[in-house]
Design goal:
Strand order of the largest sheet: 1-11-12-6
Distance between the termini: 25 Å
Number of strands: 13
Radius of gyration: 20 Å
Helix content: 25-40%
Length: 286
């Protein structure tokens, strides 16, 4: 089981299995792409907000790119590559864009011999965001230590009162990362700068959006790579299609479905607040 912790080494081995993956052939529902393009064009025409207009244009550019690369048979071949230090699919980067209800699952046409697996990593991401932001959302060291008073600082805590508390009291924390301003984060490092959870980059920013997006990306790359590595070890046919802000999407052969659902990692270990917690991943099959 992979353990995610601050300062862990992030290098080529973190995405080795992803880059070794063969090209993926995807059957695309072009009419769903067209509907989203039309919907976003209507949204762009209806708003006067410059921020929205700029972002919608970027999303439309990505969707038009998908549409242009679809073959006459409504198929597209993608491969994983490193671009400017980040993993993307080539020739067009395919990912969910939650802010504008772009869900890649809507575009993938599942054929008779394939299935789609969606891995929702939200609980892991919430815990990382909470550790980074807790002082700016009404918590302090005393409230955290009271909450975690029965949690061991030595072994792995299989009971996880922290995610229960977050889901009850701060369930919108991932949305909050887009708008909350940085004030008292323990990850602040002076002069208006903040480092990410993995200590791989320092940001000059007054808001949490950029740093938490990078935390999410690195976390999901680690988890996606671990799932591929374990599946390859068990000689199971599984292919990574998309790494988005909160979800990872794979395509599998229908014949492997039963084995994969039994063997796919559905938990990770995560270190926050000086303790390691067992955190579940939500696995959905389409």
């Amino acid at each position: 089981m992979v353990t995610i912790e601050q300062g862990m080494k992030i290098d080529n081995t973190s995405y080795k299995s992803i880059l070794k993956q063969e090209d993926v052939n995807i059957k695309v529902n072009s009419s769903m792409v067209e509907k989203d393009i039309s919907r976003l064009n209507d949204m762009k025409s209806a708003t006067n907000n410059i921020y929205d207009i700029v972002n919608i244009k970027r999303v439309l550019e990505a969707l038009n790119g998908v549409y242009e690369w679809i073959s006459a048979d409504n198929e597209i071949d993608i491969k994983w590559v490193l671009k400017n230090g980040r993993l993307e699919t080539d020739p067009i980067n395919i990912k969910n864009i939650e802010e504008y209800n772009i869900d890649i699952n809507n575009y993938i046409e599942v054929e008779d011999d394939t299935e789609v697996i969606e891995v929702d990593t939200s609980d892991v991401l919430k815990m990382i965001a909470f550790e980074m932001m807790y002082r700016d959302i009404g918590e302090d060291n005393k409230s955290i230590e009271e909450l975690l008073s029965k949690c061991s600082i030595l072994g792995v805590n299989k009971d996880n009162p922290l995610i229960e508390y977050i889901n009850n009291e701060h369930k919108e924390i991932l949305r909050l990362t887009d708008v909350l301003r940085i004030d008292q984060s323990p990850y602040c490092c002076g002069n208006g700068k903040i480092r990410n959870y993995y200590c791989t980059k320092v940001y000059k920013s007054d808001g949490y959006r950029e740093v938490t997006r990078d935390n999410n990306y690195i976390t999901n790359v680690i988890i996606a790579n671990e799932i591929l590595a374990q599946s390859n070890k068990n000689k199971i046919g599984i292919k990574l299609v998309s790494i988005s802000n909160r979800k990872i999407i794979f395509i599998i052969r229908d014949e492997d479905k039963e084995v994969i659902m039994k063997t796919i990692p559905d938990k990770v270990n995560l270190r926050v607040f000086g303790r390691i917690f067992r955190v579940g991943l939500k696995i959905n099959l389409y």
